[in-house]
Sequence to fold (1097 residues):
Amino acid sequence: MTDLTSLTLAEARDALKAKKISALELTDAHLNAMEKAKALNAYVLDTPKHARAMAKASDTKLQKGEAGLLEGIPLGIKDLYATKGVRTTACSKILLNFVPEYESTVTSKLWRDGAVMLGKLNNDEFAMGSSNESSAFGPSVSPILPPNVSAAQAKAKLGNCNKGLLVPGGSSGGSAAAIAARLCLGATATDTGGSIRQPAAFTGTVGMKPTYGRCSRWGIVAFASSLDQDGPIAKTVRDTAIMLRSMAGHDPKDTTSVDRAVPDYEAAIGKSIKGMKIGIPKEYRVDGMSQEIDALWSKGAEWLKQAGAEIVEISLPHTHYALPAYYIVAPAEASSNLARYDGVRYGVRVPGKDIIDLYEKTRANGFGVEVRRRIMIGTYVLSAGYYDAYYVRAQKIRTLIKQDFEKAYDSGVDAVLTPATPSPAFGIGEKSGADPVEMYLNDIFTVTVNMAGLPGLAVPAGVSKEGLPLGLQLIGRPFDEEILFSLGEVIEQAAGRTKLPDAWWA
Amino acid sequence: MNAIVDSRTPDPKKFIKGATGDWEIIIGLEIHAQVTSKAKLFSGASAEYGGDPNAHVALVDAAMPGMLPVINEECVKQAIRSGLGLNAQINLRSVFDRKNYFYPDLPQGYQISQYKSPIVGEGKVIVDLPESGGQITVGIERLHLEQDAGKSLHDQSPTMSFVDLNRSGVALMEIVSKPDIRSSEEARAYVTKLRTILRYLGTCDGNMDEGSLRADVNVSVRRPGGAFGTRCEIKNVNSIRFMGQAIEYEARRQVGILEDGGTIDQETRLYDAAKGETRSMRTKEEAHDYRYFPDPDLLPLEFTQSYVDELKAHLPELPDAKKARFIADYGLTTYDASVLVGERDQADYFESVAQGRDGKLAANWVINELFGRLNKEGKDVTTSPVSSQQLGAIVDLISEGTISGKLAKDLFEIVWTEGGDPRAIVEARGMKQMTDTGAIEKAIDAVIAANPDKVEQAKAKPTMIGWFVGQVMKETGGKANPQAVNDLLKAKLGIQ
Amino acid sequence: MSVDQATVQRIARLARIAVTDEEVPHLQGELNAMLSFVEQLNSVNVEGVEPMTSVTPMAMKKRVDEVTDGNIAEIVTGNAPQTEDHYFLVPKVIE
Ligand SMILES: [Mg+2]
Ligand SMILES: [Zn+2]
Fold:
C-alpha cells in the first residue's frame, strides 16, 4: 500500500468506506508523519490519544456501516478553534495555559461527522499576520523547498533560525503547512483578510473562505468579527468541498450565521462551466505586478475559456481602497475583541500593584508586537474625534466595495478571477522589517472579498519561475460556493495538481 | 444628541435662596431599570437576583474566547412596551454599540449598549406633585437596552477585590429624561411615577433594594431662567429618599461654590447616605473615551410597526388612564384616585371593592381603613388579611343600612383578626342595625320618660337632640339607625 | 494626520498596554506609517454612502426567554489565575 498520508481526503474516505484501510491505520500514519515533522512547527499541540480514540470509534462505525461524512478522516485544527479539554491558545502568550471547557460549533460538526483530531495547528497570534511569524510558538515553516536550496541544506536550516526557509503564509500557516507536508488530510482555518487563501496559495494547497455567515464563528477566537470567516484548507478542490459541507450550517449561537440549507458541495465538482461569465477586474492589475503573476492570471482565464466560460473584463473601482479600509476596520474591531484578555478570568496574568497596573503589564507581556500594534491603531481610530474620519469612512468604503461586486454580478458575471497573492512565498524573516505595511500588501487581492463578505477560493495554478507555488483566486456571489468549486476544479485539472514536496524535513 | 431645550418656566416656589439671590436647580435623570425577564439580555443564564458567586453566569457572560451574544426577544419586547408606556417614539431600527472600557466587573472589556440609535426615542411622563400640588411634564430623551455589569466585593480581603459576574449581562433599560426637573420633590415624584408605570407594565419590578431601579442624577444650578450651569452626575442612587437628599445637598454645594466666586467642575459624584453628602468619585486624569462603535457580533435590531401595534394593543391600562377613569366612573377626588393608582395591585383591589358599589364609599374604606391598617402592620394589599371580597361585603352592609359606620369599623377589625364572612359575622353576633321603627320608638320613649328635664331643655335648645341620639344609641347597643333615631326624636320632641 | 508621543502614550493607556518611554518613538513611527497608508481613503467620495453594518443582510435572530445556561461556576472560574469560592480575585479596586 502507498503511503497513507499521500492520499487525498476523498481517496481516504473512499478507501475507508471500502474497508481497504482502517481509520486507525490512517490516523497512525499521520501521527507518525507529524512526529517526524515537528521541526516544521505546523502543529503547536499533538493530540495522539484523542486521535487514536476517535479513530477507533470511527472504525467501529465504519464496520457497522454507520459512517459519517468524514468518518475516520484525520484533521488538524487551527489553534483559534476552541477544543473542549484541549489547550487552545490562538498562538498567543496570553492564552498559553487556556483549556476551554467548550467545543467550537464547527469542530463539533466535524466530530459529529466522524472526523479525527490530530492536534492543534500553528497560526499568527490571534490570526494577525500573513506569514505565521507572529505566533507565540515561533513560525511555522513551509514544507516547500526554497529556490536553489537542496533538501539537505533545508534540513540543516530547519530549527536553526529557519533563515532561508519559506513562510507558509498566514495567518493559517500551520494549516497550509500541515496539508502541504501531508500531516493531515484536511485542516480548519480562518480568514479575516486572506488568512485561508494566501497560505493556500503559498503552499500549493486549496483554501476556501466561505461567504460571511456560512460557517459559525461560535467558539473561534475572534479577531475582527465582521470579517472573520472560517473555512477549510485541503489538498484538492474536492477535499475542501467535502470539508465545507461538514463545517457549514446555521448556528443559533451565532447571530451572524445564516439559516440556509447546506448544499452537497462535492456535487459541484465536475459540473460544466459552459456559458458561465467570468469577470476579470482590471483594477487588480496593480502597479508593479510581476510578469509571472500576470501570465498565470491570463492562463487561468484561458483554461476557463477553454472549458466553455466567457471571459469579460469588469471594473471594481474601489479595489484600491480595500486594503487601507481593512486596516482601519479590522484593528478597530480587534482592539475591542481583545479587551477581554485582561488576566482576570483566564489566561496568563502578570501581577500588578493595582488593577490598572495588572492590566497593562498582563497585556504588554501577553500580546506580541503585531497584536499590540493592531490594538493600538484600532484604539486610535475609534477614539474620540477620530471615529468618523476613520472608522465610519472605512465602513462607507466597504459599502462601496460591496456595491462594486454587486454591480458586476448584476451585469451577469457569475464569478471573478484574480491572482491570489501578488508574489510567491517569501523567506522567513524577510518582511518583518520596520514597515508593517509591506507585510500587509500580501493581502491586497484577498481583503476585498472579506470586506464584501463574499466567498473566495484559492486554487494552485502553477509555479513561479523559481518553482514556487502560485495560486489563483475565484470570487463568487454570496452563498454561491458551489460555482467556485466547479470553476476551481477546472483550474486544478488544467494546471495539474501541485506535486507536494518530498519530506526533506523528516 | 438633541439640543437641550428649556421646557419649564422658572417657579419662585422652587428656588434656593442664596446669599446673593435666587438659584434654580436643573435636574436630569438617567434611570437604570432592570428588565423583567427570566434570562439575561444576550445569554441563557438566569437574570434572577442573588445566587452563589458566578452561578448565574454563562460562558458568554464571562467573555470566554469565541463566545457570541444572542439577543433575548423578551427583553426587546419589554423595552418596546416600556417605550409605549412612556408615550415615546419606538424606533423600528436600532443598533447595539460597544462601550469600551476596562473594569474587573466588565468581562468583555466593553458593555453592549445602544448609543446613536436607541430602541426608544422621545416621550413624556406626566407627574403629580404630592407635596406642592400640581402637575409637571417630564420629557424622555430616550430609552435604550444595555447590559448590566458584574459586582465586586471589596470587603472580603484587605488586598483583593472579589468579582462575581451574576449581574453581568442582565438586561437594563436606561431611561434618560430631559433636564426638565426643577426640585428634589419633582425628582422623587418623577422616579415614583416612572416606577409605577414600569410596574404596571411588568417590565421592571422596581425593587430598589435589589438594585432593579437605580438613578444617575445630573444636577446643576443657575440663576432663574438663565443659561444652564455645569452639571455634576451623582451615580447609582438606589433609594428615592436618598435621591432627594443628594439633590438638596448637591444643589446647595454648587450654590455655595458659585456664590464664593468658584466654578463647578463637571464630574461624577457619589452620595454618601451615612454622611448625607456627595463626594467626587473619579480622578480627573482618568478621562473617559469609550470608543463607541456598532457591535459587529450583532445585527441591527429591526421589527415592524405591526409588531409594535400588537404589543400596544395588549398593554394594560396605565396609571394616568386608570386615574381618569376612577374619577369619571367612581366619582373619586383627584387625590383619592392618585393614591389608588400608585400601585397596580392597590388599584385592582379598589376596583374589586368598588365594582357595583358606591365608589366614594369604597375609596374611603380602602384608603382610610384598609391602607391605614396595612401601613401600620407593614403589609400591602397583596398580603392583606381582609380580601377585597370581604371589604366589599362590609361596604354592602353599610350601604344597605344593615350596619352603622361605627359598627362597620368593629366588623372590619373582626374580619382583620379572625377572618370570616362579614355578613355571617353580623348575623351571628347580632350587629345588625335596628331598622324596625317600633323598637327604636320603644327605646326613644324609654329615654324620654327617664329624662323629663332634658326634654324641656331640648325644646328650647334644639341642639340638645345630639344628647338624645347618643342615649338612644346606647340603649340600642349602637344598632339603631342614627338617621331613623334622629327623625323619630325630632317628631317626638317636637323639634323642627 | 499623525500622532505625537503624548498621543501614543494616551492610546496605550486607553488600550491598557504598558509602554516604556523607549518604546514610544518606535510605536509612534509605526502608527504614523499606518496612518499615512490609510490617508488615501480621504480621496474617496463617500457622500450619501451608508456605512456597512452587516455585510450579509439578514434579520437578527433572537433567543426565547428561557434559562438554558449557568450553574457552571466551576467551569467559568476554572481557567482563572486567582479565585476563591468561585469568585475571581483582582487587586483591590478602590473607588
Ligand atoms: Mg449613562
Ligand atoms: Zn447605562
Remarks:
- The pocket of zinc ion (ligand 2) is lined by residues B 32, 146, 174 (CB under 6 Å).
- The longest strand of chain B covers residues 22-34.
